Amino acid sequence: MCRIAGIIDKNRTELEIQTDLSAMCNAMKHGGPDDEGYYVSEVLGLGHRRLSIIDLSKSGHQPMFYSNRNLVISYNGEVFNYIELKAELIELGLKFDTGTDTEVILAAYQAFGTESFAKLKGMFAFALYDKELKQTFLVRDPSGIKPLYYYAAYEKLVFASEIKAFKQSTYLFEENPNWKVCMLAFGHLPEPYTTLDEVNSLPKGCYLHWNHADSTYQVRPYLPEPATCNVNNEASARQKIKQTLTQAVKRHLISDAPIGVFLSGGIDSSLITLLAQQHLDAEMQQQKLNTLSIHFDVSNLSEKPYQDLVQAQAGTNHAEYLITQEIFNTHFPSTMRAMDQPSTDGINSWFICHFAKQKGLKAVLSGIGADEIFGGYPSFKRIYWVKKLYSIPNFILKLGEQFKRPALKRTYYLSYQNTVGEYLFFRGFFSPKEISKILDISVNQVDETLKALKIGELPTSLPPAVQASWLESNLYMQNQLLKDTDYMSMQHGLEVRVPFLDTDLLKQAGAIHHDIKYSDDRPKKLLIESFRDILPEKIWNRPKMGFSFPFQKWLAHNDQFLAIVNEVENLAVKQHLRNFKKGNLHWSKAMALYQVFNGFMV
Predict the structure, then answer these.
(1) Where are the alpha helices (DSSP H) in 390-499?
(2) How far apart are CA 121 and CA 498, in angstroms?
(3) What is the pTM of this model?
(4) How many CB atoms neighbour CB 326 within 10 A?
């Protein structure tokens, strides 16, 4: 796991490119504290900051070369099937000098060209320069776990793992004029958009192909079409899920550095913990899995009894940390500085990663993805109501603005009749009328900005529950959970792995008929039934809590947080702040206001 940057610009000298790359990589050194390296030629420059996880030796230094230095790569991530892929490449006659997965990517490209990208199973973002063909490829993993941002215009390409890096270069990037509208509507910035105008996220499962001869580029998908549903038997589905998730956890434990698991006490992290320790026991490694948990001095939010239950069953090397208001206030400024892009989430991830680093870990496994794949959110049931609401005329849907309850107020968004509107109905923050008053712009401007967003098209031909999964996976998880987890973990030089987004597991889950995968009886029923032999009933037979902090209380007593919002002269903002202090405005909306009004500096 690392951080990467690069520049292709015929109008810059090698020294100018080297200087910019150094500044860009230095801005991301928290994510690559173990090593740095650069490759600069008359054609391009590549920069790299390394976090050593696999093959800790100097042979893992990047940028790395292959094929008589005709291929150069700067790579961030992990390829979990690199051992199997390496064996296949050796059979084809390719040679290796290191034990890294980085060299496997280079050799795979040498053997298969761009078709090699689809053979990689893992989380990654890399830049690969083919000197002979005079082409550069930017490649991002199928689930978009690792970020990669780029600016391509005026015959130049600038890219990096973080938006912070762009700001450290000598290039002048303008502020995205619409980011505040997006932030107040979504609570984050949806891909491909960022706070910088024309600096976008590379779409997941795609590669950018840059032709050095004429300075043109194309963005193309590299994944085959998803398989059709062919598993129609519940017993078979349970068996396949059990087999593929067990294998996914095993794969994600590959590491030459200390590794562990976040144990929240919920279904997903409990499953990963139990399967990981089960694997270590089966391998006769006689070592205890490292686990860690956090809890609070607020009893209704504490999941400690469930954490203790799973830890006792697994027998892990466990560490737990208590977070109080005082600890939260002390570290709050650091959590804000760590944000690469504005978000109402991510603070919880900062703390758990902070303590993982204290425990001496360099990689941890997380349960992100299970809710989106197996139906763990209320949206999987509420989406049936959405389909009925669409039959109501638009002018009536817009009257939703008149309601006080946020859930009813959000019906306004369904009048957009598109993917943006449907998502914001489920997870939107402020309504267009509220946003217009906060930013002092017209409602029409808010509407037009949001309607024009290109965030992917929801496949309406899919069954409703599958549509809910699409929305939660491609928008909420993609734009908030994965993005926030990445920059908060890398701020601590920590790698977070997500076994539920394993390539084979996603493929297998996608092949299961939706009537089996999504049950009316219980959220994530298929996942639970697949592991009832090891998952304690007390873990799954209780209300879902989520990884929540007592933010409503803590932020209301945090001077830095209140000071920023208090300084705003806008009357609408002042009213929202009064409501927050009274407990009548959710903390996440207050956080969105904080980010918009100087809490987040572009």
Answers:
(1) 394-397, 406-409, 419-427, 432-439, 443-451, 464-471, 483-490
(2) 12
(3) 0.96
(4) 9
CA 29/CA 31 separation, integer angstroms: 5
Q: Tokens for 20, please give them.
A: 């910019």
Rounded CA separation 174/315 (Å): 53
Q: CA-CA distance, 189 to 596, in Å (whole number)?
A: 12
Could you identify the residue written with the tokens 């956890």?
249
Structure tokens at 344: 């109402």
| Phi, psi angles (nearest 5°) of residue 254 | -65, 120
* E strand spans, 100-172: 122-130, 135-140, 149-153, 156-160
**Scanning the structure block, which residue is given the tokens 């037009």?**
448
- Find out whether 602 and 175 touch, Cβ atoms under 8 Å: yes
Residue type, 351: F
Going from the C-alpha of 373 to that of each of 283, 485, 579, the distances in angstroms are 29, 18, 36
Mean pLDDT for each consecutive 10-residue tract of the chain (602 residues)? 93 96 96 93 95 82 95 97 97 96 97 98 98 97 98 96 97 96 98 98 98 97 83 94 97 93 96 95 80 85 88 95 93 94 94 95 96 96 90 89 87 96 96 97 98 94 95 97 97 96 96 92 94 95 76 91 87 94 94 87 68
* Residue entry with tokens 């490694």: 285
What would the two tokens of residue 62 be? Answer: 């990047």
Q: Is the peptide bond before 63 cis (omega within 30 degrees of 0)?
A: yes
Contacts of 385 (CB under 8 A, 6+ apart): none
